[in-house]
Amino acid sequence: MHNPERSPHELRNLLSQNLQALTRDRVVSKVARDAQINRTQFNRYLSGESFPRPDILDRICRYFDVDANILLRPLGEVPETLERIALRHAIEAGRFDCAGDMALSLMAVRAFPKTDAARCVLAQCAGTVRHGEFQMLAAEAGFAGLQQDPPPILSDIPSTATETQKPEPLQ
Is residue 135 domain-shared with residue 88, that is, in the same domain? Predict the structure, then answer.
């Protein structure tokens, strides 16, 4: 599948949107200082005015503990493959096996925000994604600040929500 090349303007906007999500509950001047990036320049990245050099992009990725690929693509736009379509149907049917696939996990939590289904996806992702990525997923799911530990994530879910439904017998 061929993906069209993105313009510099599109890349700046993608980075801007994703950085805004990562800094949503943080003090920007502290982020810039801790990441050792000039505050004025960091604000340019946040506003989409500028794009960081590779070494600065690496600092941003290391600070937030995310892969550059996560910062440079629209997370909600996942290419439709047969595997993804099948997995989406499995998620909608109550079987959540998208752990480790950040884009698919994001699609799932956006599809089921603030629900037990989103909590199940977060619980599966807790051990498979980086801390910064988990925090982005939790915020998108409507559970900002959730700890990256499966038992507490699932503690408020009724036991029937995590059980697989059994089909009714044929008559």
Answer: yes
Classify residue 39: in a domain, yes or no.
Answer: yes
Residue appearing with tokens 């994604």: 129
Domain membership of residue 158 as a residue range: 82-162
Contact, 153 vs 127, CB < 8 A? Answer: no
57-79 pLDDT, tens digit per residue, is 999 999 988 878 778 877 655 55
Distance CA 57, CA 53 (A): 6
**Residue 133: burial class (beta carbons within 10 Å; 0-12, 13-18, 19+):** buried
pLDDT value for 1 = 43
Statement: the pTM of the whole predicted model exceeds 0.85: no
Residue 160 predicted with pLDDT over 50: no
Residue that terminates a domain, selected from 71, 94, 116: 71
Q: To which H or E segment does residue 34 belong?
A: helix 28-34
